[in-house]
TrEMBL record:
<dbReference type="GO" id="GO:0016787">
    <property type="term" value="F:hydrolase activity"/>
</dbReference>
<dbReference type="InterPro" id="IPR028212">
    <property type="entry name" value="GHL6"/>
</dbReference>
<feature type="signal peptide">
    <location>
        <begin position="1"/>
        <end position="19"/>
    </location>
</feature>
<keyword id="KW-0378">Hydrolase</keyword>
<dbReference type="Pfam" id="PF14871">
    <property type="entry name" value="GHL6"/>
</dbReference>
<protein>
    <submittedName>
        <fullName>Putative glycosyl hydrolase-like family 6 (GHL6) protein</fullName>
    </submittedName>
</protein>
<keyword id="KW-0732">Signal</keyword>
<dbReference type="InterPro" id="IPR029062">
    <property type="entry name" value="Class_I_gatase-like"/>
</dbReference>
<dbReference type="InterPro" id="IPR017853">
    <property type="entry name" value="GH"/>
</dbReference>
């Protein structure tokens, strides 16, 4: 018996030690202040460890991300297949940078990019490189895109990483542009699915002898199998990398854009080349990642370049400021990426922003990074990097909620099956044109609906699952793609549509699906015909078509509403309040208590982010009990849709927030001054006299 007790005691202490060691991993603190110096080859001739460290210290950075290898080695590599930077003069410069950063308590993550090899290596091993269905290579000057299944990525990359780990006491590795390549993003040209012989052989082994597809067609079963092949092979490589790195040192963090076998998920806030610009890019990226992958640390980088073709011109300082504050508000540390080091930089306008925001984060980091959501609504995202019309629909729905100051979480569509209890805990889930969900995710949504979760879906959501559309929404598709330009919608039931005083017809454009809603309990928003276009003398004829733009199905404990229209896209592109009010009125109909949980007179262009927080201190890492709530206010009044100006100060902001318990004190983080507040029946009320660019209000 005594031996059994000793064994149990030993196992308990081992498990406790392992848990403690996991908590001691340096990145788990989630207080990153990263500056990435993406060095062009020629800067290797002039980089200086002392100036780099001095600039990092001046910016309150605690992590440097800098080139090491892959495309080219920024150190004296001994591997003949690793192309050495020809401008490198000081063989000790990377070692000096790592050492001097560590002397100043700055972590160093080194960058690898295994997407390309130099022409010299290509000529020796053309079979290592990408080849398109037309027999084309992807080339950038003298760099050739490689094939992920060829020996360079599958074997040589590991030797390069091992050489760096064995040579330098690094704190992390960052993998840029991992995975399969089909584009030349630097020139904006699509080339197609890689037809390298190694890819052909491995796909044949995976698929039972099938040939690689040559077109990306989601309706093609072969392409769907190829997507599974890509996922499997990328994860296999990532797992092998994880085993190698952790066998060398558990304290080396792995950072890239995916989640499997990764410690830090990196995302990017990039400038847009199409209008309207998206000022919520950091809130979008971080909100998606922290809720979809709650066990990971997220680092969202503000990319300073305007585009791949305009790397030497940075985005506006006000855009950078918004991105960094949104990072803080949503639970990421700070992260920015620039071309080269900070000395002699081609566009230094944002440098004061870095110093100010990074310094603010350093001073107040105990209040950042350990957050819990207060949201009762979830918006499902079409992946981690949405694009095209689904992106516009998704952003438009977000925009409506953000402008109305309604707290919500973002959950990636592919993660629903991994977050079952979390998903079932929401009171409302919105599906903005989420066209495909895995069977397991559909089951979870159905069970959530049965338990009391309301659903709202828009446009072509779930079109590939007719049974789900019928079961959840009582809807059948007659024509999912239908140009709605010229049609009108009638806000008929004013007990639901309370925001349309003085309006009887709402204009439409973009998609207006024609659905049979006979299985719904209510059909609303009658669709009027296009009528007679022309001069004023002949217009009219907007008669009822018999179709409706909203169906509501009542379930025993919830409601499910389907808008078979581009509701989000039309607001994202045009911004007419009537379209936003359709969604807001429906939310109020389903969840009238939402409006009472958080009330403010803040303008729509003041972004509000409310979170529960736990003090983020070294001794508090195992604690999850909230210490209070924190309200972040980001002033976007300087954003005009196509540029960023300095924000206008906003005065006399008032807030009314439901809290679980009365706080002992309320204060601002910018100046740590107390705010007077009143408390009544579980609700706190306070005012902020003036908002400049940003504020955090702590209630603890």
């Amino acid at each position: 018996m005594k031996s059994h007790i000793l064994l149990l005691y030993f196992l308990f202490n081992v498990s406790s030690l392992l848990a403690q060691n996991k908590a001691d991993l340096w990145w788990k603190r989630n207080n990153l202040r990263v500056i990435q110096m993406n060095l062009p080859a020629y800067e290797a001739a002039t980089i200086n460890a002392d100036s780099i460290v001095a600039d990092l210290v001046a910016c309150s950075a605690n992590t440097l991300l800098i080139n090491a290898g892959g495309i080219m080695a920024f150190y004296p590599t001994q591997l003949d297949f690793h192309y050495r930077n020809p401008y490198l003069k000081d063989n000790n410069v990377l070692a000096d940078i790592v050492r001097k950063c560590h002397d100043n308590r700055i972590k160093v993550i080194v960058r690898f990019d295994f997407s390309r090899v130099h022409e010299r290596i290509f000529k020796q091993h053309p079979d290592w490189c990408y080849i398109s269905p037309k027999g084309e290579r992807i080339i950038n000057t003298d760099m050739y895109v490689v094939s992920i299944n060829a020996p360079y990525v599958q074997e040589k990359a590991f030797k390069i990483i091992e050489e760096v780990i064995n040579t330098f006491p690094i704190d992390g590795i960052f993998l840029n542009m991992p995975g399969y390549q089909v584009n030349n993003p630097y020139e904006g040209k699509y080339h197609g699915i890689d037809q390298n012989e190694y890819d052909k052989k491995r796909f044949a082994e995976f698929s039972g002898g099938k040939a690689l597809p040559t077109e990306e067609n989601k309706a093609d079963p072969l392409f769907q199998q190829y997507l599974g092949f890509k996922k499997t092979t990328v994860e296999d490589w990532s797992e092998r990398l994880h085993k190698l790195v952790k066998s060398k040192n558990e304290q080396i963090a792995i950072c890239t854009y995916s989640d499997r076998f990764v410690d830090i998920i990196r995302h990017e806030s990039q400038s847009m080349t199409t209008l309207p610009y998206w000022p919520y890019t950091a809130s979008d990226n971080v909100g998606n990642a922290v809720n979809s992958f709650p066990d990971h640390i997220i680092s969202n980088a503000s990319i300073q370049q305007i585009s791949f073709q305009s790397r030497y011109n940075a985005v506006e300082p006000e855009e950078t400021r918004i991105r960094l504050y949104e990072n803080i508000a949503n639970g990421s540390g700070l992260d920015m990426s620039m071309m080269g080091d900070m000395r002699g930089y081609e566009d230094e306008r944002s440098f004061p922003v870095f110093r100010k925001v990074y310094g603010f984060h350093k001073k107040n980091e105990a209040y950042f990074g350990k957050y819990q959501s207060v949201a009762q609504i979830a918006v499902v995202a079409p992946g981690a990097w949405p694009n095209g019309e689904p992106m516009q629909e998704y952003r438009g729905i977000q925009l409506m909620l953000r402008e109305a100051h309604i707290p919500f979480d973002i959950v990636e569509d592919g993660q629903i099956a991994n977050l079952e209890q979390k998903v079932k805990g929401y009171k409302l889930i919105i599906l903005p044109e989420i066209t495909y969900l895995k069977p397991e995710a559909i089951r979870i949504l159905k069970e959530a609906s049965q338990r009391g979760t309301h659903l709202i879906a828009t446009n072509r959501a779930l079109f590939d699952s007719p049974e789900t559309l019928q079961a959840l929404f009582g809807a059948k598709i007659e024509k999912k793609d239908n140009d709605g330009a010229g049609n009108y919608l009638v806000p008929d039931d004013r007990s639901i549509f309370k925001s349309f005083k003085g309006q009887n017809m709402l204009f439409w454009k973009f998609n207006l699906g024609l659905y049979d809603l006979s299985g719904a309990d209510r059909k609303l928003l009658p669709v009027l015909a296009k009528g007679r276009p022309g001069p004023p003398e002949i217009i009219g004829g907007h008669d009822a078509t018999g179709y409706y733009a909203l169906g509501i199905k009542n379930h025993p404990n919830s409601k499910a509403a389907l808008f078979p229209i581009n509701l989000g896209r039309i607001y994202y592109m045009h911004g007419y309040q009537e379209h936003k009010n359709l969604l807001l009125d429906m939310i109020d109909h389903m969840l009238p208590e939402i409006a009472q949980n958080f009330e403010t007179n803040a303008p729509a262009r003041v972004e509000t982010v409310l979170k529960r927080f736990t003090r983020n201190t070294p001794e508090n890492q195992a604690k999850n009990t909230p210490d209070g709530q924190i309200l972040h206010l980001i002033n976007l009044t300087g954003f005009s849709g196509n540029t960023y100006f300095e924000p206008l100060p906003v005065n006399d902001l008032r807030f009314r927030i439901r809290l679980a318990k009365k706080p002992q004190k309320v204060f601002t983080l910018t100046n740590h001054k107390p705010l007077n507040f009143t408390w009544k029946d579980g609700t706190i009320m306070f005012s902020l006299a003036r908002l400049a660019e940003f504020e955090s209000i702590v209630m603890e």
